Amino acid sequence: MPAKVKVSTDWLTGCAGCHMSLLDMDERLIELLEYVDLRSTPITDLKHPDKDGVDVGILEGCVNNSTTEKVCRTMRSRCKILIALGDCAVFGGVPTMRNTCSAAAALQRAYVETESTVDGKVPQHEDLAVMQEARAVDQVVNVDIYLPGCPPPADAIFYVLSELVAGRKPQLKGKLLDWH
Ligand code: SF4
């Protein structure tokens, strides 16, 4: 039996809905696991892609701060094929609405000015991520496969992974993109 395809996933700035959709493959996940070695993901105890690399990396969410940029670059450097999963990863998505104002204004609104806040203060610590403009994954690193949707349906994710484990490049077009 050929070696299993190593797959890692991670999330950047998103809502976790794309990973929920991945889990929505239900029993087909078991089918895939015959061919896939699921490495680091937010749903396993392994939190970083293998240092010696994986075959497929999957990123949900956009890049909008120093931490997500680092996670994104690490995944890119450790995977052969990178999939941008979902509209936030492919286009930037909902988090790009924050690009209409400065980071300082967004922090002020979130931590000080919200109607429910009393004595609010913008958190500051050297360990906290530094906010950046929200960007699609391919504005930071090269992406090999784009899987849009908010979230992409489990059928589409299953199709893409099935094609990759079969050694083929998925052809996402026509009805395969007609799920909105
Ligand atoms: S694409 Fe949609 S489901 Fe996926 S992380 Fe963004 S908002 Fe959530």
Task: Please give a structural write-up.
The longest helix has 13 residues, at 66-78. The mean pLDDT is 94. The chain is built from 6 helices and 7 strands; from the N terminus they run βααβββαβααββα. The protein has helices spanning 17-23, 27-32, 66-78, 87-91, 103-113, 154-165, and strands spanning 5-11, 36-38, 54-60, 63-65, 79-85, 131-135, 145-147. Bound molecules: iron/sulfur cluster (SF4). The site of iron/sulfur cluster has 13 residues, from helix 1 and helix 4.
Into which percentage range does the β-strand content fall?
15-25%
Q: Considering DSSP H and I runs of 4 or more, what fraction of the residues is helical?
A: 25-40%
The ordered H/E elements are EHHEEEHEHHEEH
The counted number of beta strands is 7
Label the overall shape.
elongated
Reported for the largest beta sheet, the result is:
5 strands, parallel
Give the CA-CA distance, first to last residue. Answer: 38 Å
Report the structural category: alpha/beta
Question: What's the average pLDDT?
Answer: 94
How many helix segments?
Answer: 6
Order of strands, widest sheet: 2-1-3-5-7
Q: Residue ranges: pLDDT <50 for 5 or more in a row?
A: none
Radius of gyration, in Å, reads 18 Å
Ligand list:
iron/sulfur cluster
